[in-house]
């Protein structure tokens, strides 16, 4: 089993993505405590919410002075793409029984990318589980490390942690800007946000932008699944 | 305590959102609008979160060292730097500009 796993492309890609992704749990942990969450709250988000974009969204709203309901709403809306991933993975791997519930929890950008990047059904399954479980373990471990280190650092601004948050969101957005329409949506939502900030309570401008983005998706005619490209390209990772 | 409440709400909603994908009948998948809305929402929210974290402080618009972090991160991404490097570059830019006396 171990020998066959070592020669499994799905497992190898999954493991390399797990290491690369798991490490940035550290930045989440540090940013979460800088936003005012305690170490327990930070770890619960990584354990139970387990979706990087939504976790960053939650603390991003709290850091800006937004309410808990605005933070939870932003996190929930950003997680909607996971429903689409779940449908794809269900069709691809058809897990049954308790595996279906476990699969749902580790359904994220990276496990989807690893799985759909493989051609052999056995490798699709291995890739999904190695990436999903590997990231879950490392992401939680490094969240704790980041939360404890961040707690010990003192003034988060002095270390540029607010700049780190800006960079993290831009890095999550960047790989999705492959088409002209995606860029136009990003610019439109950025402008709506800037205009809304002085007029509505903190956290709400993000929800206003969400309404605009959803309307563009609903009435627009761009390619189906615009912006659902995962953050990683498993085929490129596999050859490097 | 209320923050704990919203953390747990966010966690439950996130899990149900993921599970829903495994439970929906294939017919819903056939509606291309659903996939498109999920995609444009992701782009729009990430763009909005980037902007809010760059120029907003509560209900005010503020220009400070975070703009430098945004530019530095964009350059790093353009050079195909990995995620963790981009985040560190953003932090270093903001911290460096503050050392130079900027707000």
UniProtKB/TrEMBL annotation, chain A:
It holds the Pfam family AzlC. InterPro entries: Brnchd-chn_aa_trnsp_permease. One of its GO terms (biological process) is L-valine transmembrane transport. GO terms for cellular component: plasma membrane. Keywords: Cell membrane, Membrane, Transmembrane, Transmembrane helix, Transport. The chain crosses the membrane at residues 56-80, 128-150, 156-174, 186-219. The keyword DNA-binding does not apply. Its main location: membrane. Belongs to the AzlC family. This is Putative branched-subunit amino acid permease. It comes from Conyzicola lurida. The lineage of its organism: Bacteria, Bacillati, Actinomycetota, Actinomycetes, Micrococcales.
From TrEMBL, chain B:
InterPro entries: Brnchd-chn_aa_trnsp_AzlD (IPR008407). Keywords: Membrane, Transmembrane, Transmembrane helix. It holds the Pfam family AzlD. The chain crosses the membrane at residues 6-25, 37-55, 67-100. The keyword Transmembrane applies. It comes from the Bacteria. The keyword Membrane applies. This is Putative membrane protein. It comes from Conyzicola lurida.
